[in-house]
Each structure stands twice: as C-alpha cells, then as structure tokens.
C-alpha cells in the first residue's frame, strides 16, 4: 500500500487536444448523472461501496458461474478445495492434483476416457517450479484461503503478496 494516499477521482481541467485525449465536456454529457461529476460521493464512500460490492460476501450463482465465498472460507455445501483429495489416474482423470494427464489416449482416439495412467515423472510438490517469488503453483487452495480471507479490507493488502508469508518467507 502506498504511504501517500491518493485521490481516486481528480479531474483536472484539460486543454482540448487531438483525438484520443480526455474531453471532460463529452464525458459529462455522456454521463450527466454520474456521482463523479456531481461531487456527491467521496473517496471513502467509493472505497466502502467497492468493499461491499466486490470484495465481501458470497456471490450467488448466476451469469454462468457457481456460487462462491469471496472471503474464501467455504461452507458445508461448498468447501474450500483441498487438492490432496483430487482423484488421479487414467480415464480422463488428472495425473496429479497439479498436473493434467499427459498420456495419449492411443492411436485413433481423441477421447480422454481412453487415456491410460500417466507413468512419467511429475513435479515434486516441495519443488517450486514457478518463476518469480512465492510458494509456487503446487500449494493447495485449502492451505492459502484462510490466510487470504484474513486481510479483508482495502488498505490492508500487502504489496506483491497474497498475504504475509505467501512469498515463501516468514
């Protein structure tokens, strides 16, 4: 989080220029009732509304996605996934909780149900195969969800990390 707080909306007077630049007259004409132009919504109110509408609570199914808890806490009906519980093997199942089945279904078939068990070498869960910082792609959501949900509010996030310790450091 930046040490210096910044104004979220600060429309300066703009000198008309070539196409592709901001034109406040046109923006106000297109959105005349916007609270930005009316000056009735403060930056704190914007943050609070964003917290309520985008970060908190449970999203109920709709728009082609299943219901999920934005706080990553899970419920009895929809628990946080534990990748260690994923069934693996052949017949279209993944090779591991972290790797799809790479085995070919065989000559003339494109059906995943025909895939044998993948017998190749798989990444070791303790080996970080991802580039950059962090715990890598072999960490189960059940291990990270509780930590992510503890942050909860705008301004409490840690720059460059999901949560304290998620970069693999204490």
Record keyword descriptors for this entry.
single chain, 170 residues, mainly alpha, two-stranded antiparallel sheet, 4 helices
Give an overview in words.
The chain has 170 residues and is an all-alpha fold. It has a domain at 83-139. 21% of the residues lie in helices and 2% in strands. It has helices at residues 24-30, 35-38, 43-55, 141-151; strands at residues 58-59, 68-69. A two-stranded antiparallel sheet has the order 1-2. The radius of gyration is 24 Å and the shape is elongated. The two termini are 19 Å apart. The model has no long low-confidence stretch (mean pLDDT 76).
Average pLDDT, all residues: 76
**Percent of residues in helices:** 10-25%
What summary fits the major beta sheet?
Answer: 2 strands, antiparallel
Kindly provide the radius of gyration, computed on alpha-carbon positions and rounded to a whole number of angstroms.
24 Å
The N- and C-terminal alpha carbons lie at a distance of 19 Å
Low-confidence stretches: none
**Which structural class fits the helix and strand makeup?**
mainly alpha
The 3D shape can be described as elongated
N-to-C SSE string, H for helix and E for strand: HHHEEH
Strands across the major sheet, in which order? Answer: 1-2
Total number of β-strand segments?
A: 2
Q: In what range is the share of β-strand residues? A: under 5%
Number of helices: 4
